[in-house]
Structures are given as C-alpha cells and as structure tokens.
Amino acid sequence: MPLPPSSETESVPQAHCPLHPEVLATGICQRCGTFICVDCRRRGRDGRSYCGPCLNKALPALASRRDRFWANLVDSLFVTLPLLGGIIMPIIAFSDSAKEGPDDFGVFLLLSPLLVLVVTLGIQIAMVVKTGQSLGKRWRGIRVIRMNGQPITIVRLALLRNLLPVWLSQVTGVFGLVDALFIFREDHRCLHDHLADTQVVNVESDRPLRPY
Ligand SMILES: [Zn+2]
Ligand SMILES: [Zn+2]
C-alpha cells in the first residue's frame, strides 16, 4: 500500500526493528516497507531511506561509461552531420552565382543551418522529455532521470543540462573537459548531471519505486 508523503520522516511509535527487536524503529524502508532502526537505515542516492538488503535493489543501475560514450557520440553526430550539410549546401549553391545576390530560395538556403539545428535539436529534446532517451540513449538502452527517480522536465533539460554547460564552456574554456572527466567518479555522474540533479540509468533496471 502506498505510504503517505511524510511516512519516511515520522517517528514510528512502538514499532521495533525486526533485526534489532530491542530497538525502536525510526523509519520505514521505501522499497519493502519494513521498519528500520538508526543502525539499519541506509540512505540511497535518491535521498530516501532503505533497509540494507533493499539499498542496491531499490535504485536503477547506473549506465556504464561505455554506453554513455556511444550514446553521446551518436547524439553528437545526429546534430553535427546535418548541420554540416546545412552549412555546405548554401556555399555550393552560391559558388556559381555569387554576383547575382540571393533570391527567395537563396535566403532559405542561408537559413538552412538554423533550420537543420532546430529540427535535430527539437527531435532530441522531444524524445528526452517524453521518454528520458535521446536517439543514442535509446540505442544503448539507457535513460536520464532525476536523482529522485522522477522524469526530467523540458526546462531542466534545456537550461541546466544543456545551455548552462555550453555557456560555462564558453566562459571558462575548461568546463567541457572537467564535465567529461566527472564520468570517472564512482557515481558516473558528469558535472552537467550535478547541475541538473540528474543521473543516467539502465532502462532494464529502472523499475518504479514506491510512490512518495
Ligand atoms: Zn527494504
Ligand atoms: Zn535495526
């Protein structure tokens, strides 16, 4: 049965820890619902409390660095290759008729890099907001979610996970490198994951948690 929102923090009067019957329970495991005492209480990376056996089973497995690398590469190519086409197309088209000046179709061609970018980024953003998966992530069976297991919103995705890192890279020059190197930490979370409070997990292991 779903627990009320405050069940995790409320004291549990008269309930005893099953592993330490002499000790009063101070919380409830958010996966199996068993009473837990202070010693038995484990804090998951979603910030919620679990009993020892549930700690690793409750949370979805983190995506491997290899899957994240390949997903990233595919996503980058999906945006950059069409963009390159959008840039080259007008250059070729105008190379013959440079002196005549652009007509309507010429203006359309000049705008083509922008149009290409809007379409490719639009597809990726729509996919991630709907399923947590970009094209590359879908291919590798991984998805991005909030640390508390909730889906990511479009504002968080666009501003904190994409635009802010791009801006920081422009300003500092080294943000991109540091961001990528963070993947080698134990939690596999890049700096942009920390900025956006997100994690990338395996879809297979991403089972719904007990509701808040
Ligand atoms: Zn449990
Ligand atoms: Zn205990």
Automatic annotation (TrEMBL):
Protein's name according to its UniProt entry: RDD family protein
Residues annotated as signal peptide: none
Compartment(s): Cell membrane
Domain of life: Bacteria
Segments crossing the lipid bilayer: 69-93, 105-129
Organism this protein belongs to: Myxococcus stipitatus (strain DSM 14675 / JCM 12634 / Mx s8)
Membrane-topology descriptor: Multi-pass membrane protein
Pfam families: RDD
InterPro entries hit by this protein: Pra-immunoreactive (IPR051791), RDD (IPR010432)
Residues in RDD domain copies: 63-196
Cellular component terms (Gene Ontology): plasma membrane
